[in-house]
């Protein structure tokens, strides 16, 4: 059973990419740089190969972290931590996460799916790397960072589905947010992760200003970074809904109903919180075990599957997917862990720390297989129907022929 019904395949040919970018940095600094940078790639390289190269570098960054700091997140600060120069390599992973459409001036449904799929995976990996750089360690702050990061991505995909265009405001995650992370990685590279443990008022010397010191809590800079991220998320929620509201009003559609399609994400967050905060063992038994990073990676893969289906519904003009089968595993984990509260008996599966870790690793394997199946089937359906290549090298003649085939997918 495929992900694209036969009757929905025709929607691929009607798809048009539409985007709005109001960022000054993007329009006057980054876009000229990206336009020059992608010309360094040979024209015969498949567009999606460049996107995949960005994900590959982030995966390499993640592997580098695991190699240098295998105790990552077992306690605050991990073990000895990687050498400071490693944090500079994380910047390369972000730089290479760019869009091939900047070179060709075109964006088709396959490129849209491929780009969003790689970005969805990058989101979780970069979040884990950033939390390590901020020295947040194994904590609820790291979990909260994952929530905020995924929420922004879900919000953007939800907005694109209902407005028909990707909207980047004056301040957006894919532009200013990424630059902030680049700056954070570079500071960590110079001073190390413990730099962010300093109190913000102490570091800025504002603790000597009585009016400020008496009103503003002197929290650590890494914690203040989390509060700033929360403020940005709240601003994005308001902005995204305003864009959806205006688009729906212009089209004559309902303006309240789209809000219902936001509910699956907070529901999944509540399930993960219930799972982590279960009373069957210690209060934070997954957080304090080697299963925490796999737990976050599992959620990231599940999330990638969810938003992948959302963007697939967008490019094929299908109904918004409210339910996803990947939620089943989170429900099982949360219900099993909370059986002492629900029915007054020990968990059936997670009845010990060892079994909890095994269960997390099992569902991680299931998530990998499920998402890989989704990727293969969707790429196969789209390439077969449109008659285009995905990752294969092409001759100049094939490049020109592909341009003819997808010329209808130009930016508007």
From TrEMBL:
GO biological process, any: lipid biosynthetic process
Coiled-coil spans in chain: none
Cross-referenced Gene3D superfamilies: 1.20.120.1760
Subcellular location: Membrane
Methyltransferase found in the keyword field: no
Gene Ontology cellular component list: membrane
Protein name: Choline/ethanolaminephosphotransferase
